[in-house]
Design brief:
This protein is mainly alpha-helical and 148 residues long. It is built from seven helices and no strands.
Length: 148
């Protein structure tokens, strides 16, 4: 697992954001209702209350449980993408004025809605490896920025 900075504590998750994360953890969200934006939202909620390292761990646990219920198991889970997205969201949170909801945060950071944004940091060939799927692999093109 990469060494990640502490999450910014000034961002808040709205009651609706918290309900969303609870519903996801309770496996009450259908696959059709859990797209890229929803992955970001779940990570945002976790980063509002935990360090980036703990948020990544929580994302992994929640996603694996979700995939198990769908009968997809660990094969569909991608550790590098999960950790990289948590890093990216954490970076944007540190760069963004405090907010009170994911909707407010994403309005200020619409670039995160582009699921291909990580391809400026990772080559497709690196992300396609089994190593990247099962273990965290550092970016091979450009590091994900971090705030000192």
């Amino acid at each position: 697992m990469p060494s990640m900075k502490e999450a910014p504590v000034h961002h808040l998750a709205s009651p609706e954001d918290m309900e969303f994360s609870c519903r996801f953890e309770a496996l009450e969200i259908s696959p059709e209702d859990f797209g890229h934006r929803d992955h970001l939202r779940l990570a945002y909620v976790y980063l509002c209350v935990d360090s980036a390292e703990t948020a990544a761990w929580r994302m992994e646990r929640a996603l694996l449980a979700f995939l198990n219920v769908l009968g997809l198991g660990r094969e569909k889970y991608h550790r590098t993408l999960t950790c990289a997205w948590v890093d990216a969201i954490s970076f944007f949170m540190l760069q963004t004025a405090p907010g009170n909801s994911f909707d407010e945060f994403i309005r200020r950071n619409p670039a995160l809605l582009d699921a291909r944004i990580l391809l400026s940091h990772y080559s497709e060939s690196t992300l396609a490896t089994e190593q990247a799927r099962r273990h965290y692999v550092a970016p091979d093109l450009e590091p994900i920025p971090r705030v000192a």
